[in-house]
């Protein structure tokens, strides 16, 4: 599997290349040059696979054997998912009738981002130890990414992580999760402004090629393909547990901020998973406006809500247009 920029000016990159990158040089995001298409028989063969098994299946389709062996990859996934509080990792609870809740919050910080970042942290550490390389991770957060990112790499000798925390915009629990981690490689800074305003200086850092090179700077926000790749697995897992028969269509409602999570669902659908999706937003409705009427503009101030992770109003590059290159999402609010 090789990777290219979503905007076309780079190609032929390895998984390791894009894992240790931020934005592509042309301002796009790194994506696979092609997405594997699964047949109905292949889907049926995966129907009873565990969640860790599906993470392995998805990762194996996007990472070559030359970059990490199947034994190493399986061990890495299993070891990092041990941190979750339930053996199933992802649980599904039935409510009324055909309505179900997919619980993605059983990780160490209680955020769904633990699912991907626990594995991404393991992959980074695997390659860093192999090459005796050091990196600096720069993270901007509206709350949950910061906590998950810190937990995924805390204490690792080859990694320093810098998290920028918007003052007054995260929950008290999230602030405590971030500011009470005492490890030498963890650096937390509280900044003025909201998470959208925070994105601007971060983008400038990643677009400064000499700065990136001098500090071995990488991102593990949702611009990183590794994050999206692992998230594909929970769509497959949810589908197999919810469908009456493999092949029937299941609709998934996905709480959406910058669209990193639902992008993984778009890619799962692109790979042949029979799902439809509804992007559910709050007053900060950039995704709904973009998909329903092509309005990709900033619309006033970010409104503080009870769900800080969804409080996004600017044109984030982690929307489905860059990572999936196709429109698969229903627009509903």
UniProtKB/TrEMBL annotation:
The modification N6-(pyridoxal phosphate)lysine is found at residue 113. Residues 311-333 are annotated as: Disordered. Its EC number is 4.2.3.1, 4.3.1.17. Residues 2-79 form the Threonine synthase N-terminal domain. It holds the Pfam family PALP. Coiled coil: none annotated. GO terms for biological process: 2-oxobutyrate biosynthetic process; serine family amino acid catabolic process; threonine biosynthetic process. PROSITE patterns: DEHYDRATASE_SER_THR. Keywords: Amino-acid biosynthesis, Lyase, Pyridoxal phosphate, Threonine biosynthesis. Pathway: Amino-acid biosynthesis; L-threonine biosynthesis; L-threonine from L-aspartate: step 5/5. It is an enzyme of class 4 (lyase). Residues 323-333 have a biased composition (Basic and acidic residues). Residues 97-315 form the Tryptophan synthase beta chain-like PALP domain. Its cofactor is pyridoxal 5'-phosphate. Belongs to the threonine synthase family. This is Threonine synthase-like 2.
